[in-house]
Every structure is written in structure tokens, then in C-alpha cells.
Amino acid sequence: MAAPQEPPKLEAKSPPAEPQKKSREDFNFDRIIGEGSYSTVILATDKSSKKQYALKILDKRHIIKEKKVQYVSREKDVLARIDHPFFVKLYFTFQDKDNLYFGLSFAEQGELLDYLRKVGAFDENATRFYTSEIVIALEYLHGKGIIHRDLKPENILLNKDMHIQITDFGTAKIFESDEDEKASSFVGTAEYVSPELLQSKVAYKSSDLWALGCIIYQFLAGRPPFHAANEYLCFQKIIKHEYSIPDGFPDNAKDLVENLLVSDPTKRLGCDKMGGYPPLKAHYFFTDVNWDNVQNETPPTLLPYLPSTTKGEAGMHSDYNMPSSTSEQDFEDRFLQCFGLGDPSKTESKARSGTEQDILDREEKLKQQASTSTWHPFVNGELIIKTGLVDKRKGMFSKRRQLILTDAPRLYYVDPVAMVLKGEIPWSSNIKIEQKNFKIFFVHTPNRTYYLEDPTGSAKKWVETLNKSLVLYKSQNK
Ligand code: ATP
Questions:
Q1: Region (Disordered): which ranges (predicted)?
Q2: Is residue 38 in contact with ligand 1, taking CB distance under 6 Å?
């Protein structure tokens, strides 16, 4: 065996100088990224290195007043212990008279929750990919003796390449030994809180695995498993272990979720007593995952996805990102023809003569609508152009709603049983209407895709009317 090499002799040197503390003046402030309850996060560029950071600025007086000093120092302590690509990284901290500053890696693509909201639910492939990243992250975190305690899609940020960067360590817990695995105070977000936190006010590493089960369910089904009108009811459901797996949920994911959402924290797949992470990673939901390479893989594209709700029927993707066969010009032509405006001479006469008569007609119609239409109270005095029942789907769940298009144009939806206005699909020039089949149509808005199903099979009629309103709206808002 070769003799071990002598380490090279080191010249006596003075200790390396402490890196110079940064200050506010070292940065250009580009834009506000977000606001938290106790902080503002700003995209800032280091003037000398030109590197960009998410600079989290915390107002000292506010933090003291709100008794959040412990929360802030916890966040700093935990971040200082973490150095892993699937977590936000703390590069430096500094302070001045008024503020504390945390220099964090910039998660350019924002929150995973925004993507989930936008597309409604993830398909199995995307669910597997993001779940495997979270599993790797949790294995690392728990290996470091840290419980996150508030894991949820909102705290999972995305870097520029769409890989995860977990954040928000204000309520995390560092434990020194297994005995110390418990923590004393209640924290967390209602829908992801584990039963042991609610019942005994203790958190284990395994409490993060419960949250993981909730997240996997939410990825696929479109909403978390324990979901109720208020926190109290949500807690009751968690304690009673009251949740159901919807039809269409893949069997392998169902088995995984059921092995994570176990009320006894010592019986959850992935916890120490169940053999730790190897059995979790070996679950058949992850069959094709190459655990050593997840970080280098290209994340799957997150497309609007419509999981099937009946067994045996494949889930459908939206064609939204595909080149559309119907151009805007086509829509415009069809619209003009529908209104007899295709011929330029007709367009001109209509434009000249229409206005006053149109106003009178509208007033007359409104009067009629007020006395005959059940939906009139919901539309702010606007004229209803089209209304009908639809099933508004989110992931694997749907709710029956009365959809009402008005001439504003605005698109309201009402709970037809409780007769309560539930919301509005935000109208803008940027919306896109897409017909999926004779029943299903999508309204794509910049922040969310609405999945609407016309039980009578007249999706085409909705799509045509919506597109006419859109063309008219665009022409009036040029
Ligand atoms: P609260 O303190 O009320 O719980 P929060 O945890 O969202 O809120 P912050 O951590 O201050 O508060 O974040 C504020 C906003 O900035 C959030 O929308 C978050 O997504 C965004 N943000 C925070 N850190 C980063 C980062 N490193 N990169 C990109 N965006 C970030």
C-alpha cells in the first residue's frame, strides 16, 4: 500500500480577514418580490458582483412590537444550517438602525401554489417529480435535525429552472436528539396540520410526512384532503381522520397517501420507526425515479390538466399551449358575420344608427330582466347575455354553479342552491376560451384556468358566445 502523503506544510499566516459585512448601499433595489406579515422581499443586485438576491428586509421595531424576535432568529439559525439545492439559501445577513436584512437565493418562478392554482391539478408525472424533490429535501432536513412544521405548497418556491426551493423556517424546530424530537407550541397551517399537533401539541419529524401526504393529495386532486369551511371544522376532520380519495386518483398514489396520512406518527412511511426514508423512496409510486439524478432532470411542463373522475377514463390535458387552429382573425370574422357586420357598408350603417336605439333597447331589456330573471340580483344592473348551469371543476372535485355572462362583460358564478354569488371569472383581453369537447370548455385567465362542464352538452354555444364578447371587448379596449 502506498505510504500516506504528508500534508503540505503551511506557512504561518494571519487568519483570513472576516468577510466585510454588507450594507444597503452595496445593492441596487430592482423591484418588490413580495410582502410577508413582518417583511418585504426585494429583488436586489449586488453592485460589485452583479449577483441577484432576494433581499428580505425586516423592520426591527415591528418585529419587537409583535413579539416575533424568536421567529426571526429561528429562521436565521435554521437557514444558516442548510446548504442544499432544494432549499432557499441564506448568503449573508446585515442590519442597520431600522432593519434586518437576509440575502437569500432568488426563487425566480415564485410559489408552487400559484402553478397549482393556475392548472387546477398536476398530472401523475408532475406529481411524482415534485413529490420526489420534496422527499429528497425532507430527508436532508430531517438528517440535519430540523422539522419544518409548516410545509405546504405556498412555502415551496421554484428556482428559474422550476426546481423546488423550500422556504419559511420561522416556525421550524431544531432538535438535538430523538428524545428532543418533540416541540411544545402549536404551529402550522390548518389544512396541513398533523393530528399529534392538534391533540398533544407535539411535533415530530413525522409531522412533516403528514404534510407531505396532504400535498401529494392536493397535487393530484386539486385541493388538500382535509378541507372545510373554517379552521375548527378542518381540525375536526383531521382528528377524526375524515377524508376520502376521489374517483380517478391513481392507485399507486392512493397507497402512498394512505401510508403517509396515518394518525399514529410512528406508523407513517418514512418515519424513523418505519425504517426512515429508504422504504418511502422504494414505494411503487416512485418506481421509475432515479433518486440520484432528480436535481439534474428537466422538470415536467405543468399543463392545465383535467383528471378523469370516473375509473378507466384517461385524464385530459388542455391544448392551451398548442398552436390554435382558430386564429383571432377567424373569431373576429365569425363574430362580425353573426352580427351582420361582415359587410363594411352594413358595419357603417349599424355604427351610425345603433347607439341611441341600442341604449333604449337595453333599458327596456333590463326592466324585463329585473322582473323576470332569478339571476338579476347578482349582476350589478348589467344585462345578462347568457346563463346556464355548469360544473365548475377544480382537480378531481366539481361544484354546480349558475354561470352568468353579462354585457359588461363580466362572468359571474352563483351557487344555485344557496343562491349565493360565489365569485367571478376575471375578464380581460388576456383570457382565452378553449372548447375541449362537447361538454367541457376552459376559460384560461393569466392566473388560473377555469374548467367548466356544461351538463347539457352545449359547451360549443358557451364558447361561441364568450368569444363574441371577447372580440367585442377587445375592439372596445384597443
Ligand atoms: P408571512 O411572514 O406572513 O408568513 P411569508 O412567509 O410569505 O409571509 P416572506 O417570507 O417575507 O413572507 O415572503 C414574502 C413574499 O416573498 C412571499 O410571496 C414569497 O413567496 C416571496 N419570497 C420570499 N422569499 C423569496 C425568495 N427567496 N425568492 C423569491 N420570492 C421570495
A1: 1-26
A2: yes
